[in-house]
Amino acid sequence: MDKVRVVLTALIIRLLFAPFFAHIWDVNTIQVSLYYFYQHGINIYEYVYNVSMWLQTSTNLPLYYEGYAYLPHYLLMNVPLYSLYLTLGGDPLPIKNVFDPSHPLKVAFSPDVHIFLLIIKLPIILSDAIIVWLLYKINRKLAWIYALSPYSVFISAVWGMFDSLIALLLLVTILLLRDRRFFEAGIAYSLSLIKLYTAYAFPVVIAEVWRGGKAKGFIRFVLGALVAQTLTIYFFTKNPTAFLSTTLLFHGERSGGGITPLNILWLIFNIEFNVAFSKLVSAILVGVWSVITLYVVKKGVSIEKAIAISMITGLFLGKLVNEQYLLSVYPLLLIITSETHKLEKYPLIFALLNSTPIYFALPLLASFPSYQSILMLWHKIIVSEEIFFLRHVTLFIIGTLMLFRMVDLLIALLSKPRG
Amino acid sequence: MKILCDKESDQCLSKLKRRAYIAISIYVILLSTLPLVNDVLSNGGWVGYGWGAYMFDNGVVSVRFSDIQYGADKPKIYVYPKPYYSLRPIDAVEISDYESFVDTLNIYRDAENMTVKIIDRRSIEYAYTYPNLTLRKVVTVLPNNSIVVRYETSRDVLFRVSIWRWYYARVAGISFNDTRKTTEIMLNNVTSIEFEFHDKEYGAWIGQVSFNMPINARIFRDDVGINKFIVETVSRELWFVITIHSNTSAVTSPVTAFFKTLLSVKGTRIVLPVIAIALVIYGWRRWIK
Questions:
Q1: Chain B residue with minimal CA distance to A417?
Q2: Which of A142, A344, B73, B189: disulfide with B108, CB 3.0–4.6 Å?
Q3: Topology of B100-262 in CATH?
Q4: Membrane-crossing residues (chain A) (predicted)?
């Protein structure tokens, strides 16, 4: 009964927030991708690639359009939901005027936006509920922590980002590996690559497969992984250049920032300098991650801890640390360390300062008659130099504290590899 | 911990922690100096930093095709008060493509295609394509800190270029009071136009726009003051030089100017290294001790 209560609590809290809030740019990315793919049959990777090429040609700068840069599964998973939304008579593009970086000034919504947001966030919210259910099997307290976690609610139900799905797939991978079900584990891990950052866990997962299943297990795992990537292979063969540019090159070439002291690059008005420096940081990261991952593999660290260590190293010492990244390892960290919930304040405060609460609440505010006045006032505030100064100094402080905190956690995990 | 230590022990863990924090601390302090390093490297040259966002800054004059965060359609000209101890430049004038036309075409909105290119350290080129017409706009900052804006088209057109400010004190000797009876005043066949404006911190400023040919101009106002003048001429080429300088003898104290403008983009260059050192000390006390 308690299990049902905690799962329902997680669901209800998230469903209450979902229709009224969104990270407009990110949800628009999904909206536009679904619209072009489902309504017009356009290869979404070609679309993003073409916009990036246009940007680079017209500006002569190493700029990429920040569109759909994930593997195709998430898009395809949303197709039935989008189809349902259209069947209900929804506006195909309920979020309007989101194209260039100054979109917060121009963004408008059709009245259908709330239904759209609710429907489009269902897989993410469902992932949260399944995580809660799985955590309950391990420890009742952990399930309640996750269900009520403001950070998890924020990323999934408010922002609309699908990192809880990745967290779920990583969790499922671990459970399947423990049960020696290598084919299914291959499918689960392979699907987690929708967001390619889970590639940081690849060596430790493979090592675990080899340790547990030897050659036979390895073949099963690879087969499972390949089956899950059939769609990726299909999109890749349709236009390899567009696919690789959008899913790989974009991540490699983009400038650093986020919850890291490297967000200082946001204060440097020189994209070429920023990209060059970000690449240098990435090169150093690859070295550090390789050494730590090798150590973890050699030590035979437990799989959940090994994944957590390799993911934390790759995600939080790297050039770009987005607010949602922590969620991908959050359930794992809950299992491993009691300190986890103390971490969530950093990304939460960072997101609210960086994007501002108004930005997330735009779908809700749009129904107010004073919406345009709110937009203008908000814009006036955020472009003032004083606010710009205060915001960016605070973001640098949070980024640095987060780095210290993650290094501390990493050392704690590494110091007791078998614990 | 065999990578960095010989054995797993508290002493070894403590040593590893110290090493990691020293590396991270050096990294954070180095990062905090990056904006200053970039300012020195890109001083006096155009740099791009986003969608349509470009900037030239040499500590005397700053020209931006952008607000702080978003790319836009302008060259917006800022000037630093002498003797340049202010961290924040004064907003002077902007030449808005949104409000300028070639024939009946809005320069920005009606363009089918637009490309931007930094053509040399001091010059940036905007190329617009319209049906049966191309327009090239080059903005150059001269060594004497005057700004040249040059328009070239593929055929003769009627240029109507808006030069904005909220607000001018005078344009061509005409004040807001002189415009009370009409919403616009016409200037015919002039080769230069002088304007004046006041900054509440740094007093009176004078600017001059000198044209390559005689032009007509219309001066406009709103309820508060004179807010733009529109330059008009028929040609294949229009260019003008804008020079702005202070016209006040009142000098704000360097200390006052510095602290009044500390909460600014340039202020972060000074504040962040201090904050980085403070954070490193805090991190050390919080997590190492």
A1: B1
A2: B73
A3: Beta-galactosidase; Chain A, domain 5 (2.70.98)
A4: 113-136, 148-175, 187-206, 218-236, 280-297, 348-368, 388-414
Are the CB atoms for A167 and A123 separated by under 8 Å? no
In chain A, residues with a C-beta closer than 8 Å to the C-beta of B28 are: 261, 400, 403
Output the average pLDDT for chain A.
Answer: 95
Residues of A in contact with B272 (CB under 8 A): 264, 267, 393, 396
As a dihedral over the C-alpha atoms of residue A166, residue A169, residue A174, residue A177, rounded to 10 degrees, the angle is: -140
Quick check: A137 and A102 in contact, CB under 8 A?
no
Give residue B260's pLDDT band: very low, low, confident or very high (50, 70, 90).
Answer: confident
Share of chain A above pLDDT 70, in %: 99
Interchain contact B86–A (C-beta under 8 A):
no
For A273-329, the pLDDT digits (tens) are 999 999 999 999 999 999 999 999 998 899 999 999 999 999 999 999 999 999 999
Closest-CA residue of chain B to A294: B3
Examine the predicted complex and report whether its ipTM is higher than 0.85: yes
Cα separation, A33 vs A52, in Å, equals 15
Q: Is A385 on the interface with B (CB under 8 A)?
A: yes
CB-based contacts of A108, cutoff 8 Å, min separation 6: A96, A97, A366
Q: Does A51 touch chain B (CB under 8 A)?
A: no
Domain ranges of chain B: 9-42, 100-262
Residue of A57, A268, A400 lying closest to B115 (CB–CB): A57
Residues of chain B with Cβ-Cβ distance to A404 below 8 Å are: 21, 24, 279, 283, 286-287
Give the pLDDT of residue B71: 45
Beta-carbon separation of B114 and A58 below 8 A: yes
Closest partner residue to A271 (CB to CB) among B48, B115, B268 is B48
The model's pLDDT over B155-200, given as tens digits with 9 standing for 90+, comes to 999 999 999 999 999 999 999 998 887 767 999 999 999 999 998 8
Of A262, A291, A389, the CB nearest to B31: A262
Chain B residues within an 8 Å CB radius of A408: 17, 287
pLDDT at B6 exceeding the cut of 60: no
What is the C-alpha to C-alpha distance for residues A175 and A189, in angstroms, rounded to an integer? 11
The alpha carbon torsion through A264, A267, A272, A278 (nearest 10 deg) reads: 10
Say what the pLDDT of residue B1 is: 46
Overall residue count recorded for chain A in this entry: 419
